[in-house]
Amino acid sequence: MTTVEHLDVLIVGAGISGIGAGRYLKTELPGKSFAILEARGASGGTWDLFRYPGIRSDSDLHTFGYEFKPWRDEQSIADAPRILSYLRETITENGLDAHLRFHHRVLAVSWSTERARWTVEVERADTGERITLTCGWIFSASGYYRYDEGFTPDFAGREEFGGLVVHPQHWPADLDHRGKRVVVIGSGATAVTIVPAMAGDAAHVTMLQRTPTYIMPVGRKDPIANALKRYLGPERGYAWTRRKNIAQQKAIWSFCQRYPKAARKVIRWVNTRQLPAGFPVDEHFNPPYDPWDQRLCAVPDGDLFKAIRRGQASVVTDRIARFTATGVLLESGKHLDADIVVTATGLNVQAFGGVPVTVDDRPVALPDTVSYKGMMLSGVPNFAYAIGYTNSSWTLKIGLLCEHFCRLLKHMEAQGYDICRPEVADPDMPTRPFLDFGAGYIQRVVDQLPRQGSRMPWLTSMDYQSDVKLLRADDVTDRELHFERVSVLTQGDSL
After folding, report:
1. Which of 180, 196, 208, 248 has the smallest C-beta neighbourhood within 10 Å, fewest atoms?
2. Fold for domain 5-147+349-484?
3. What parts of the sequence cross the membrane (predicted)?
């Protein structure tokens, strides 16, 4: 006879979303028991995992940070160590250390309506031991990509290359690039971070891209934010800066969506002023898609453009024919000599950590589910997840989701409900992909993800003001959200 630990809520993942969820639970529902399971041996998620040169946010920390914890650092676009320190301060200040369980990898979760609870199979990565937990709710804060491997295409001839091939997700701690010729494959946020960070010490760094990306310089420090904090104090100054930056993000995105041709011209004008005279801007910085069809890359203080102006870095737009013993041969016939090749080619998207989900002995096929309010799945009871914005700061949405989640749990407790299950009233409601986003890492797996509907509450909103109304102001109840009361076993079930 084995006694199984039961928790009210099980949070999966100790990154920025899981830490936030833990804080909201601790503050809003202090009577609820919960744990935060983390497969790795440290908190911080992305900001602890990635160690490549220059790693930083591409959103300002006044909106990427939590609403409840002011960002006090003078850097608005901050590097990973500063972000990690901020996250770990949040853990300590809110007493979350006791709730964290490291090296706990969730293997499978199964729901029983009869018992109104989840059974969670967990592996202790440090010991190999397997344990079972039960919980009333699961809050998946595991992000959207695989932590154990990044995406690298199959390159012909890679085995012939005599140098080192590195993916940013698995950066060697002892990699020395001083005086080396480096080719960085990619043009997204990771590539535009790595290139200027390596350029100062490398012999030369080449950013090799198949397709250009929209890239804009932003100030690493926000003088208005720092002035507001100085004159109004850290809390009020942070709050006003947050409002300013939310409005600014919305205005830029809306302008790009409504006037893409004008936005393209503005971005090109800025790029031209940042680059050397005569630089082929249209060849290397003029994407075939409109601004914000994919995420716009920010470069702090224009560091990428500075590296290009100094001759420390260059951009090549071409396709790879094959690797050679000494570098990369392009389809144009040009050869790029390299000692190190960095494959900044993206992530492998994985919904909910790839954990198999079963409801009443039936496996859940994610493509058959529809996202409810961007935080639950049709037909899956007592299961919430955290997915942030793709067109502004991730954490803006996470905060609203956590608030709504706590309000929902309070409502269920007040009414004596045990089960909460979203169900689509109209089975013929049109659906579309969960994320309407053109990035390659999303498109590769879009058919494996949940869907979203054609109307609220089944739309996955990417607009902060709309979500403030939906998740903060509106009632948690809805005619397509069904509640039940059942008689369940008490805590400490025996199996």
Report:
1. 248
2. FAD/NAD(P)-binding domain (3.50.50)
3. none
